[in-house]
Amino acid sequence: MTEPPRRPRRRPARIVRVETYARELAAALRLADWSITVAVESAGRDAYASIDTDPGKVAVLCLGPPFWRATPEVQRATIVHELAHCVFAPMALTLQQLGAMLPDGRGRALEVSLLDVEHEVIGWLEHVLSPSLPLPPAFGGRR
Predict the structure, then answer these.
(1) Predicted TM-score (pTM) of this structure
(2) Which one of 46, 52, 70, 133 is most buried, by most CB atoms within 10 A?
């Protein structure tokens, strides 16, 4: 006897609200061609957020406990920061491929160095762009 199909789990309302907001910000940042989703899984206990991207312009945003406790301004800046990684995703992939071709760990050192510079630029973009974008709605976290 086969089991009846399971109903898909409903995603928490706050995750759906963040996803809607992140997609609005993505459109404002000219990333509307990306498929942005928010994972139910956490980014980690101490991390505000992380984002995973793939070459097919798919991004999965993970949020950690500090995000939910943050002010709306910090939440906005955090999402802008993570979305900016989408802009640099092709470069990051190229750096990984280049790093794999260089001998004796030099490729990895080059990759890490350039990714550090990328992160500095993303931080700058976050601070410049965030104030001009709308604040998020209440996501159901502590404020």
Answers:
(1) 0.84
(2) 70
